[in-house]
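Our collaborator T.R. sent over the components below with a one-line note: 'Predict the complex.' Nothing else. No constraints on interfaces, no templates requested, no preferences about which chain binds where. So this is a plain run: every listed entity goes in together, and whatever single assembly comes back becomes the starting point for the next discussion.
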Amino acid sequence: MSVKFEISFAKTVRLNGGLAIQLKDTDSESPAGAASADPANVFAKAARIARFTAKGLASLDIVAPEGAPVDRIIVIGTGRAKELNAHSWLKLGGAAAGRIRNVEKAAIFIDLPGVQAGGKAAADFALGMLLRAYSFDTYKTKKGDDEDKNGAQKPVKVTIVTPDAAAAKKLFAASEAIADGVILARDLVNEPPNVLGPVEFAAKAKALEKLGVEVEILTEREMRRLGMGALLGVAQGSVRPPRLVIMQWKGGKVKEKPVAFIGKGVVFDTGGISIKPAAGMEDMKGDMGGAAAVTGLMHTLAARGAKVNAVGVIGLVENMPDGNAQRPGDIVTSMSGQTIEIINTDAEGRLVLCDALWYTNDRFKPQFMINLATLTGAILVALGNLQAGLFSNDDQLANQLTAAGLVTNERLWRMPLGKDYDKMIDSKFADMKNTGGRYAGSITAAQFLKRFVQETPWAHLDIAGTAMGSTLDEINQSWGSGYGVRLLDELVRENYES
Ligand code: MN
Ligand code: ZN
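Returned assembly:
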């Protein structure tokens, strides 16, 4: 059951019933805003009884005494105030949102005793709330108590109280753009594969036109003319035709080269003729997580009016076994002219990406290319669900990405590339083969992609562990996490906006 918030900011608030949320760090006596919400100071007694020490994200729920200006007070611990960073504010917002139930309004005091949070912290806190509030319940016909028969809800009116209310309100516009981009990516990943095929996905991308994004959709015929034999080989086993979507946001200077983001969009991956085992195959509806992140990012950049020229290119196909499906042993010719021997039809993501990368580089000559893909199970073996694998031919880009990962907590771990790994995908019969075997499976996949980027600065993010089924946390309770949108928005904001 989801909650909707209508968030506003104010310097002060007149309390009149409802919920008050206050923060407390480990070093101060009582929570901020205590004087107004808790005149009888029941906090001290409640904290003693509950052994509440204000350690990070711990909470204390107090029924306000008679005569108090609110009905309920929730105190959330922040740990040590001086250790708070940008991501802490998101998590605190998420933690607060997760505790708001069955109320019409809530006042949230985010300044700590002796620490003024500031407008940016308030906007980050609000972003955390929006991300936490998301849940994907489109296909649940039984609605929660607080929803009417159409599933509509009365939003909870939230006032975030901060002396920097004006600054917070301004910054919140970007928070909303980010939240909407993440939520779009989550929705795309969560949608069932019968509903979201390549054509339907392309239509969702087309909808970004209302934000000023230019969107082109290439059909099979056009891709055939361009020579995208690798991508088309994957698609040929499905009755659903493939699409290549090109999204352009022109927020930068006219002559400035664009930054480019490329996404793997396998709307469902059965493995093809090299079919996967049945257990867990339903998760392969999320094999378009890279394309979802690129689409979500383009939404965010456009919605917040980012001063950058950005291109998003997504390759949308379905990988099915069929009488017409591609076989192991087939040799296909990519748009680059390089030939590829298919060893395993389940190593299809790189076949989609290699044509999308070549096309992007050839047409746009971008400053850099970053591709996102739920590419290998091997990256889960290496890094679990906690970090994405980062592969790059450019140290500066890799360092910028790693830094953005730390700020947003969408973390990346850099993995190696090298000539000796590259050799592992040489083929007896063609220029290369599409797998290098079990060992170093994530790395040989990256080496494959690297053969299609030439000298352009490039990074490949293997998000198979982070785009879906990652550990739930304060700001994400959804299977499809939307990983990558915040990361890349931060990368652009910090390094590439004019
Ligand atoms: Mn596969
Ligand atoms: Zn796949």
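Summary for T.R.: The radius of gyration is 24 Å.
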